[in-house]
Amino acid sequence: MDTLELIKLSKEGDKEARDRVVSENVGLVWSIVRRFANRGHEMEDLFQIGSIGLIKAIDKFDSSYEVKFSTYAVPMITGEIKRFLRDDGMIKVSRSLKETATKIRSVREKYGNLYGREPTIEEIEEDLNIARDEIVMALETGAEVESLYKTIYQGDGSPIYLIDKLAETKDESENLIDKLALREIIASLDEKEQEIIKLRYFKDRTQTDIAKELGISQVQVSRMEKRILKIMRERLGA
User: Fold this and answer.
1) Measuring CA to CA, which of 102, 123, 170, 210 is 20 to 30 A from 75?
2) What one-character DSSP code corresponds to residue 160?
3) Residue partners of 19: CB distance under 8 A and separation at least 6
4) How far is CA 153 from the centre of its chain?
């Protein structure tokens, strides 16, 4: 039984068929997981996340796409892992540390008003009756969060913070993964759809120019472009 038949059965509620599609694509998931090695997470954990992306691909796959299931699944699996890494990488500060940091700020304000100086760690420890290591951790955590919101550029408009630049930065492996996934998606489009994407986004041509070259109306180009972009977003898991 081929993959398309198994996926059809899976959509009809056949759990064994779905499990078989998953087992047949374990190697595909691992091949993608290896691209995200050395990110501070166990490979097995990333495999579990990638498997979620695989299952989503099984549930969402439509044979009318006229593309191999593996081609459709790659960006779905990749997107699931990237979302996990992005969300899990956000700084999470526990409530107790936040409360400690607030108390420390109060002590610092008090010392500033009374003595015109910053309190020492020992003075904060004595004043709050909190362990020194917790005080240090709260101070370091507060400094890390604060540094992310440091203004690195202030022009005529809104300030640009360091966290904004970090959010825009991608390493080379992520760029490569994006390119590979995008290349596979474009290759799955039909000839006219590929031509529209190439002219519109790689040669910066207008819809009117494309319509003239392809012998169709500008409205048709617009509709096709919207449909193509929707398909691409779905397959990239965006």
Assistant:
1) 210
2) E
3) none
4) 26
- Predicted pLDDT of residue 42: 82
Class of domain 95-168: mainly alpha
For residue 151, the surrounding DSSP H or E stretch is: strand 151-153
Distance CA 24, CA 238 (A): 25
State the pTM of this model: 0.43
Evaluated on CA atoms 87, 177, 144, 128, the torsion sign reads positive
Give the pLDDT confidence of 152-188 residue by residue, as tens digits. Answer: 455 545 555 444 444 444 444 455 555 556 677 777 7
How far apart (Å, rounded) are the C-alpha atoms in residues 134 and 139?
9
Report domain extents, the chain. 95-168, 189-238
User: Of 178, 179, 176, 213, nearest to 196 (Cα)?
Assistant: 213
